[in-house]
Each structure stands twice: as C-alpha cells, then as structure tokens.
Protein 1
Amino acid sequence: MIKLIDRLSALAAMAAAALIGVAIILVCQMVFIRYVLVGSTAWQTEVVTFSLVASVLLGSAWVLKERGHVAVGIVTENVAPSGRRAMMIASDIVVVAFALIMTWKGAEVTWQAYVGSWTSESIYEFPLWIPFLSMPVGFALLALQGLALMVQAAKGDAVLGHRSH
C-alpha cells in the first residue's frame, strides 16, 4: 500500500511539473503576443495562475514523501532516534488532520462551483470547478502520503532529516 501511495505522489508530482511547463510556455507566448505582435491575451493569465496553484497542491504529497518540507534541525538532530520518530509521527498527524480538513472543504467548494456553474470573471469565463479540483485531489494525496510516512516511522523505516527511498 505504501508503494502505491508513493507512486501516486510521484505521478501527481509529474503532473505538477507538466503544469509548471504549461505555465512557462504560456508566459512566453503572452510576452511574444504583447511585445512582438502588440496584441492582448484573454485567457492565458488565468490558466498560468490556475496551473501554478494546482502544481503546488498536486506536488505537495511528493515533497512530503521526500521530507522536503522545512524542519527545525537543531531540535530533531539533538534527540535520540526514538524522540525523532515520535516528533515525526506527531508532525505527520498534524499534516494528515490538516489535509483531511482541506480535502473535505476543497471538495465542498469544487462541488459548489460545479453545481453552481461558477466561472471566472474574465472574458473567457473559465469553469472554476476545474482548477478547484486540484484542492481535494492534492490534499487527499497529501493525507495519504502522511499516513504512509506515519506507518514507516512507526515501523522505524524512516529517520527525520533523511530522505526515505
């Protein structure tokens, strides 16, 4: 199960990287249209913004898997391994609780946007449920990855401050 969660996190990270690539291409296209063709863009700014936000949400589970988040090393490095394990589990509990709340609330907002046919305020009127969907998906993956890391820490498979592979 942990390997499946790790794979899902990696797939979401690849999607996040692709979204960043899309954003970069669109920004270059916007610059070209604006300064070379002296034109304007209608939808690109929104898609860039939505893509970058979605990339953060979708990539967060992989960052957690890699223990790439900020940690207070002076505290964790100066305690026994059992203390590190307890700190790791406690922090993962907080992450999972937060992620579950955000999954629930993100799903509510996404559903409201879908049912209410919410659109962006631009000329393009982009359906908002599409970018909002990255909230419940990203946070659900973050919760799953947090649970996987808790299991690994409880089994003694991971040490805080070192990436587990």
Protein 2
Amino acid sequence: MIGLDGEASAEEGQGFVSWQGQGVNPRRMQELRFDQLIFARQLLQAYDCLTLPEQDRLSPLLAAIAEIPDKFSDVVFEGPDTNDGKALSGFFKRFQPKLIESLQAAKRLAEPSKAAPRLHLFWLDKQHCLPALSYLHNRSEWPMGIPRLKMPHEAPSRSTLKLVEALHTLMSDNELRERMRAGQRAVDLGAAPGGWTWQLVNRGLKVIAVDNGPLKGSLVDDPLVQHLREDGLRYRPRKAVDWVVCDMVEKPSRIAQLIAGWLADGAARQAIFNLKLPMKKRYDEVHRCFAIIDDILDRAGLSYILRAKQLYHDREEITCFLAKK
C-alpha cells in the first residue's frame, strides 16, 4: 500500500489486532487510510501499553499522557469487544470523569470544534491500558467502531441495519445527502422479506423490489414499492435507475460481475451490495472480485469509486459501495 514494514500481532478471542511498524515515523502512520481498511472497525495510533497499580491508576496514566505532544478534542474509554471487555463498563463510568477533570485542569483538552486528535484509552483489563490517538476524517466516529443502531419495529428484517450502517460508513454525511435523495428510483435485487427496501422507502425512494419470495409488513401495500416476482440475477429495468442494491446469497464473483454490469450498461449510476465470502482465503476472494469489477468497468471506459467494509452487522461478508465518478 504505502510501503510500511511491520508485523501484526493477535490472539484468538482477544478482540483486537496490534500492528507494530519497524522504524516508522509516527507521522507516516497517518498515511494509512481507515476507509481503505476493509476488515478494520477502527484505526488507532497506539503508544506503549501501561501497567497501572490498582492503588493509583490516575497518576501514572497522567504522566504517560503528558508525554503525548497534543491537545485532545475528546477522551474515549474503550475495551475489547469481548465479554471481559464489556465487563469494564462500570469501571469506565467511575474512572473516566476523574481523568477528564485532571486533563481539563492541565489544559490538555481542545475546543470541541478543533481538529485535534481524539485520545483513546484502550483497556485490556483494569491494570493494562493502551493510550492511542485517532484523527478526524481517518477513523470511525463510533466508539470501538460499533454503531449504536436501534432496530425499527416496523422493519421486516434485521438486514435493514446493515444498509443503515453501510450508508453511514461508506459515505460521508454530505456525500450521502447528495447521492441519495427522496424521489430517486432504486432496484433491490433479492429483496424479500424487504429489510433493504424498507430502508430505501423510508428515505423517500421509489423501489422496484425483485424477488420470487414475498415482502412483509407495510411494504406489501406501500405505493412507493413495486414488487416483481422475478430472478434478481436476470432482471434489468426498462429505464435507468439511480441505485441498485443487492443482498443476495450468491457466489461473490457472480455478484461482482452482476453489479459491475449494471453500471457498465448504464442501468444504474451507483450501487450498494454484499459479497458473501468463503470461509478461507477471504482477502484473496475480495481481490478477485475487485479485479472482475475493474475489468468490466475498464472495458466500458468508466472511471469509478469502489469502497468496501466488513460492517459490524455483517457476518461472513463485506459490503461495497460502487459509483461512477
């Protein structure tokens, strides 16, 4: 990517990965782009792990933070996404206010509107802490990269949460407002029971839901929805649409070919789709799918944007955003 040498370290079940650069200037680490890391929920530039005595965690922690030459826009306490990590929440509630009060007294906190780095304190347990920094426009804004999304009780399936997370992860808020607007036309391939269609309709889009299976709930009689009982792998609209979305269970290479074909033929301007990855060699499969997309769109003479992320609400898959430039 950017020519940084290093070594990754991880243990099964620990809930995080550390990467140690070899002879790398910390400023060069900022050349890593979070939006290009497909399988990472968050990107932190970490310092040495601290071992803190139970009797006085605050003093040595403040001493270590004093060595970090920045003011901070915010202070976030985090832990591994494990049962042990979740058990730290009570400790966080008690200890975090004391630390913030001390940092305020030391004038280490910047105005919230400033583009200062965010201070993360990543706790392995109550005695071991990794101080780390994240930078504006190069991180997830959700703590631990986990979106706090509430399942709408009207939605026909939990898959609606995947599309919400995808929209806010793969595009900035401004880009989302520009690209997805009420009144646009979309096609949902493999729509049933309708989780993605429901999300699009609630944003004011007119949706052609393509699936041989039934839609559920309010979508059945929604005037913005046209349900076509057809094969999503074969369907094409008579007129071009603004969006095509796809969450079908199918070989990832076939979905990559399908969606790239929609853009290459002018059937859609932009797409969000899932690639269901195999159990082994997932990264190799991702590159294979991206090569298929690149080949199809290159032969069509199209420049394009392609972003991908394994979302929190994904499982054995990644979600992709593809659009013409």
